Amino acid sequence: MDYYRDDRYENRYERKPRIVSTILLAVVCSILGGLIAVALVPSVYPRATVEGGNSVILNQGGAPPVSYQGQEGESPVINIASTVGPAVVGVANFQYMGSIFGSGGLTEVGSGSGFIIDAENGYIVTNNHVIEGAQEIMISLADGRDIPGTLVGGDRRTDLAVIKIEDTKDLKAVQLGDSNNLRVGEPVVAIGNPGGREFARTVTTGVISGTGRFLMLQGEASFSLIQTDASINPGNSGGPLVNYSGQVIGINSAKQVQTGFEGVGVAIPISDALPVIKQLIEKGYASHPALEVSIDDRYTPEYASYRGWPAGCYVARVIPNGAAANAGIKAGDIITAINGVKISHSLELTHQLFKHKPGDTVEVTYFRAGETNTVKVKLGEIRSDQ
Predict the structure, then answer these.
(1) I need a labelling partner for 164 at 20 to 30 A (CA). Which of 194, 297, 310, 316 fits?
(2) Active site residue 129
(3) Has 229 been annotated as catalytic?
(4) What's the pLDDT tens digit per position in 115-154?
(5) What tens digit of pLDDT does each residue of 353-374 get?
(6) 55 tagged catalytic
(7) Is residue 20 part of a domain?
(8) How many independent structural domains does the chain possess?
(9) Residue from 111, 222, 237, 384 carrying the catalytic annotation
(10) Residue 97 domain boundaries
(11) Which entry of 159, 229, 272, 333 is annotated as an active-site residue?
């Protein structure tokens, strides 16, 4: 099974677990916003009028509901596209690349999408994997302007990033919705730049196919994701997923690809992303809960079975005086559960820890020398810039 996102060097992205994954993890609970929406029979839906705004309060729960006007039977997607579209931007990642003929220069190594959440201050949200490693960032606006962007902060543990542009003339911001009460079957609209500038602000429609999904991808594994049947292509990452009230409910992120079926698109829920986004804007980094151990992902369920040991996460290193060390966990222990929930991979460990915050106490079950023990661990803190 493969996954693809808008990686810096390849459009097709296969997630491979790191051999040693540092499990110092963050709290951003829950249920991820659904992605994109399926075309609906026009005669069922009257025209929707969506109010835009110059700025968005980051912790707002939602924008005013859509008012329906215009010709009977006209799809609200038309009005949503014209209202939300101007707030969607292209994000280009430039890095210095060497050349066999000399020193080389700046080269665009990847691109994705983003959306303006604060027009007055020029703040833009995207996925961290879109801008990771960028030495220069270029933002393409709906009016045709290309404006340099500055990275305010990025967080690989949640795959979120915030960019700032200084030229804020005539910017339009999105309205933010609430992803905590999404319903399976709810229609949604995705807007982004699949394939780059040539297909800027492409609109696709679909439904929320499921919620509470887990994906074995660093960043996305921190959340309970929303599944969608909408088409997700390279370049969509970082773009908004919008409900039929014209509110952003998710951040398009990745697609799971498996032989035999079309694929499953996922989005990060906006309500879960906002605490991280706010931290990135206010501090330039985000704080996450930390177990303060390193995990060796070469310890697989197959290897565990061969040795006659339980499946879990093999502790390769314990940070001295850290959260796990203070609770008596040692290198060589195998963590098998968090608060009674069984785990068998470092990303599953991440997923459980991200349901908490620094300072919370969790129960950690581990296997050592033929015995299983459970201890209480007060979680430490790790910053996204560490």
Answers:
(1) 194
(2) yes
(3) no
(4) 999 999 999 999 999 999 999 999 999 999 999 999 999 9
(5) 988 999 999 999 999 999 999 9
(6) no
(7) no
(8) 2
(9) 237
(10) 31-285
(11) 159
